[in-house]
Amino acid sequence: MPRTLDGQITLEKTPSYFVTREAPGRIHGMSPDTKLIVVVRNPVTRAISDYAQTLSKTPGLPSFRALAFRHGLGPVDTAWSAVRIGLYAQHLTNWLRLFPLSRFLFVSGERLVSDPAGEVGRVQDFLGLKRVVTDKHFYFNATKGFPCLKKAQGGSRPRCLGKSKGRPHPRVPEAVVRRLRDFYRPFNRRFYQMTGQDFGWD
After folding, report:
1. Using CA atoms, how far apart are residues 66 and 61, in angstroms rounded to an integer?
2. How far apart, in whole angstroms, are the C-alpha atoms of residue 5 and residue 119?
3. In this UniProt entry, which cysteines form S-S bonds (predicted)?
4. Average pLDDT over residues 63-77
5. Which of 93, 91, 121, 96 is nearest to 108 (CA)?
6. Rounded to an integer, what distance in angstroms lies between the CA atom of residue 184 and that of residue 19?
7. What is the pLDDT of residue 196?
8. Helix, strand, coil percent content, the chain, rounded in steps of 5
């Protein structure tokens, strides 16, 4: 990380930090005062999105159901990373050994799409910044299905998520989705209790 001068905030974004066992110790060793922002979304939707991204890079993958459940429709396979990542309560437990809850802001991935200015406002507050990014800075891109930033003054064009975001998800049978919802429910509820936030995934 580069040195941060007075009046500056240094940000770094890596999705795998939250689920990497060694990350809390390394980050705490670098700076125990680090503020941590974690964007989470419904773990079932997240797993399907993860699968869609992998499928786009590796055509011919087994079906989502074949990967999500051992032996086709046996127990949920938590060894598969697309499933394991959504066990947010387990990952947070690892972080809370070193960082107090007050160092975290949990951002709802769903609200980031439905109310980007509201969620970005929470981030600005958490970082002690003046709220300069507001709803006037966003527009909804119907093609991508996500909000985009309007063109900055002097900028050449609006800023949207890259080509890897907003791709269509494969159709997953409702029975598979239901089983995964049931599987994640106790983990989600524990995560709600730990964070003091109900993300409404149940």
Report:
1. 10
2. 26
3. 148-160
4. 89
5. 121
6. 16
7. 97
8. 45, 10, 45
Residue 85 has pLDDT above 70, yes or no: yes
Q: How many residues does the chain have?
A: 202
- H or E, element range at 104: strand 104-108
Q: Coil, strand or helix: which one is 42?
A: coil
Q: Which residue has the tokens 């709600």?
A: 192
Mean pLDDT of 9-15: 87
8 Å CB contact between 172 and 64: yes
Give the helix/strand (H/E) hosting 187.
helix 174-195
Looking at the predicted structure, is the pLDDT value of residue 82 above 70?
yes
CA atoms of 111 and 198, how far apart (whole Å): 12
Q: How far is it, in rounded angstroms, from Cα 74 to Cα 98? A: 36
Contact indicator for 97, 195 with CB cutoff of 8 Å: no
Three-state DSSP state, 140: strand
> Sign of the C-alpha dihedral, residues 49, 42, 147, 8?
negative
What pLDDT score was predicted for residue 16?
Answer: 92
The structure tokens listed for 146 are 């996500």
Residue 171 DSSP one-character state: P
Separation CA 91–CA 96 (nearest Å): 9
pTM score: 0.89
Closest by CA to 108, choosing from 46, 166, 41, 43, is 41
